[in-house]
Write a structure and sequence with these properties.
Elements lengths: L1 H4 L1 H6 L9 H8 L4 H6 L6 H6 L3 H4 L1 E3 L8 H11 L5 E3 L22 E3 L7 H8 L7 E6 L10 H9 L2 E6 L15 E6 L30 E6 L3 H16 L7 E5 L8 H13 L1 E6 L2 H4 L4 H4 L1 E9 L7 H9 L10 E3 L22 H10 L5 E3 L15 H5 L7 E5 L6 H6 L27 H6 L6 H8 L5 E5 L29 H6 L8 E5 L8 H9 L5 E5 L10 H8 L7 E5 L4 E2 L1 H7 L7 E5 L4 E2 L1 H10 L5 E6 L3 H15 L7 E6 L5 H5 L4 H8 L15
Parallel strand pairs: 1-2, 2-3, 3-4, 4-5, 5-6, 6-7, 7-8, 8-9, 9-10, 10-11, 11-12, 12-13, 13-14, 14-15, 15-16, 16-17, 17-19, 18-20, 19-21, 21-22
Helix pairs in contact: 8-9, 10-11, 14-15, 21-22, 22-23, 23-24, 24-25
Length: 706
């Protein structure tokens, strides 16, 4: 309707949108959600009616994050263009009833189907897959109550032809893996809790009747990501048992992401020994216990590696250069490298080294030269302190990586060494400070615009130069090496936090201002920057980074006071493209002024606030929800009482659920003993992407799933 109503104005100016070529119009229409194209836009005029049904627009239908779609729209969409759809992505559509899946049967020509996060029973899955004879790629969830014996022979025939399977497990089960006899790519996400809702301990042993042997003979990619818990470890070992007997000859990517301690067993050792003898890998990630202290990396063979993750391993820089980089001969193909928590990876050896000692710049230089095509690099959760040698600062060396798209660094790694030597941080600025009686102290006045910042010559800092050299960076994370979120996964909220690294004490407003040079920045995470005094750099980011979609701020400045609130509110007024906002700060006041500023973010969809002793104004929250029509997720974990939280949550749901089918609201006291029970009901899409804090750079190989 907007297209047609605008035609009269365009004609008066000599320009008519409908006079553009079909190629240009198709390109424009490719940015419109498919549901709008088919159900709305194509009804405006004859030309658009034809173009909206073009194969280039109907071949792939993405309903993921189309939060306005409902069951009726899906039904009408499948009825109109079901036969034209070859790839259907409904990942994370948790709000759609399970009966919606019945309409997928109209898509007879489907080749790829993603139903991760959708409600689906064994019987519905069987009925649907029985009609999809061309299916090659499938993603589903396996929930409690799943029964493989209910799958029909026609369904199993379809599964036998599936080449790619992504399976998220919420219960101990093989799921549909034994039926997929031609698998080339297997992605497994283990989200099984150790206790049931009733408090009973769960077992990782598979139920009788599910002990069919998976078929891995054609497997090329094996990926497993484990949530915390021993049951997940027990179940993944059952999946790995078959691999240890016979390693697929074509295996080229083997990745296991496991938090905490995941001990190596005789079976896994046999598997790794077999891999060292028989396969050449392109991607590798292993639990830290499997690598630490072993000579495994010396024996593994690599072909054209594109992804390595040694997260949380004690791998030294010497071993990294000798056993992985191999003198730079084989690493030009590497595009993604995760060294998060690898505290000694930039030191020649780790035996007598302290984690806070200076890095060996020659190791980082070898890494940069050898892996010159890196696009994703994660060096967070470690102390990477540069020495005083001129030209060898970590930021100066990283500036050579011109292809970087995402980067994660610890706060202490970006500080100027000379500045720290000349101006040691004052004791009054150290954080966190003891909570109690407040101490009155003067706050230095910082300039609030980029020109004044430049006059202070902050452009001479190594971090400013780094930001200037990485003009195409899309994702940046600057996280304190000792930072831990107040809201971990399956445990009570953390009440105390560790102090920041001494080297990080000088990092504050000027460094944040340097980030504003990243014109194409889409995602920004800042955590535990101690020297934030006014937050003036945030305003510069809001003005200059107009593509910013995701913003996560945690524990900035002194812990006892929200010192950057004024600057944050000024920043938000300019963030027209912001979709996800996560704030974690003690004593945060979510009041009328904050929500009024946040209302300027017209594209905002998801909001998460985590604040110990934080307060909120219910009327302000309701007004914000009423004015920001795109918001479908509101999570607040504050210091308010349970009664206040429940009343506000019920009011939001009652007022807005009907018009926002995907609405997910959780208002709950952060330190309440039942927090973990509340967290388990959060849709995985939101929990994994925004509610829980974590570093996401190089977390998985690029393009792991379509």
């Amino acid at each position: 309707q907007e297209l047609v109503s605008g035609e009269s104005e365009e004609e008066s100016n000599g320009v008519n949108l409908m006079e553009f070529s079909d190629e240009i119009l198709l390109h424009i229409l490719s940015y419109v959600p498919c549901t709008d194209l088919v159900l709305n836009v194509r009804r405006t005029c004859r030309k658009l009616a034809t173009l909206c049904l073009d194969k280039s627009l109907t071949h792939t239908v993405v309903l993921q994050k189309d939060y306005k779609v409902n069951k009726d729209k899906v039904k009408q969409l499948m009825r109109d263009i079901g036969k034209e759809i070859y790839q259907l992505n409904m990942a994370g559509c948790y709000w759609l009833p399970s009966s919606t899946i019945d309409h997928v049967t109209r898509c007879k020509n489907l080749v790829k189907l993603n139903l991760s996060g959708c409600h689906i029973t064994s019987l519905r899955l069987s009925k649907m897959l029985s009609t999809l004879q061309h299916l090659c790629s499938l993603a589903i969830d396996v929930n409690p109550g799943f029964d493989a014996s209910q799958l029909s022979s026609e369904c199993k025939a379809t599964l036998s032809r599936v080449l790619e399977l992504k399976q998220t497990l919420y219960t101990p089960s093989y799921g549909v893996v034994p039926c997929c006899t031609s698998l080339e790519k297997l992605l497994l996400y283990f989200e099984i809790l150790d206790r049931s809702r009733e408090g009973f301990m769960l077992s990782g042993q598979l139920m009788v009747g599910e002990s069919n042997v998976p078929h891995y003979q054609n497997l090329r990619v094996f990926y497993a990501r484990l949530a915390p818990g021993y049951v997940n470890q027990e179940v993944v070992r059952l999946y790995l048992a078959v691999l240890s007997d016979r390693t697929p000859e074509n295996l080229h990517a083997f990745l296991i992401s496991a938090p905490g301690s995941f001990a190596e067993t005789g079976a896994t050792k046999n598997l790794l020994d077999s891999m060292a003898r028989n396969v050449r890998l392109d991607a590798l990630q292993l639990p830290k216990a499997w690598i630490n202290g072993s000579g495994l990396l010396q024996h593994l063979k690599f072909n054209n590696p594109f992804y390595f993750s040694f997260s949380r391993c004690t791998l030294s820089g010497g071993h990294l250069i000798q056993r992985v980089i191999n003198g730079g001969k084989d690493l030009k193909s590497l595009t993604s490298l995760n060294l998060s928590g690898c505290v000694h990876c930039l030191a020649p050896e780790s035996l007598f080294r302290k984690a806070e000692d200076d890095i060996d710049s020659s190791i980082l230089e070898s890494l940069v030269v050898s892996c010159c095509n890196l696009r994703h690099l994660n060096l967070s959760a470690a102390h990477h302190h540069s020495s005083e040698s001129i030209g060898n600062h970590l930021c100066q060396l990283l500036s050579r990586l011109k292809h970087l798209l995402s980067l994660a660094l610890p706060v202490c790694s970006i500080t100027d060494v000379a500045a720290n030597v000349e101006k040691p941080p004052k004791a009054s600025n150290l954080v966190p400070q003891a909570f109690g009686k407040k101490v009155r102290m003067g706050i230095q006045t910082y300039p609030r615009n980029l020109a004044d910042q430049a006059s202070q010559k902050i452009e001479s800092s190594v971090f400013w130069a780094l930001m200037g050299s990485l003009r195409f960076l899309e994702t940046l994370e600057i996280i304190g090496s000792s930072f831990s979120s107040a809201m971990p996964r399956n445990e009570p909220a953390i009440r105390n936090s560790l102090p920041p690294c001494v080297r990080a004490q000088s990092v504050g407003d000027s460094e944040v201002a340097a980030i504003s040079q990243l014109t194409y920045l889409q995602s920004l995470t800042l955590a535990q920057l101690p020297n934030i005094l006014t937050g003036s750099g945030l305003i510069n980011i809001g003005l200059q980074c107009q593509h910013l979609r995701t913003l996560s701020l945690a524990n900035l400045g002194m812990m006892g006071k929200m010192v950057y609130m004024s600057a944050l509110m000024d920043m938000l007024k300019h963030c027209k493209c912001l979709r996800d906002l996560r704030l974690e700060q003690p004593y945060f006041c979510a009041g009328a002024q904050f929500f009024q500023a946040l209302s300027h973010c017209s594209s905002l969809q998801r909001l998460c606030i985590v604040s110990r002793s934080g307060t909120l104004q219910s009327d302000a929250v309701m007004s914000f929800m009423a004015s920001c029509l795109e918001v479908i997720m509101c999570h607040m974990f504050m210091g308010e009482s349970l009664t206040v939280c429940k009343n506000l949550q019920q009011s939001i749901v009652r007022s807005f659920q009907a018009d926002r089918p995907a609405l997910n609201v959780i208002i709950f006291p952060l330190l309440h003993e039942d927090l973990t029970e509340v967290i388990r009901d959060v849709p995985m899409r939101h929990l994994d992407e925004i509610t829980l804090f974590k570093s996401r750079v190089a977390e998985e190989p690029p393009n792991l799933w379509w």
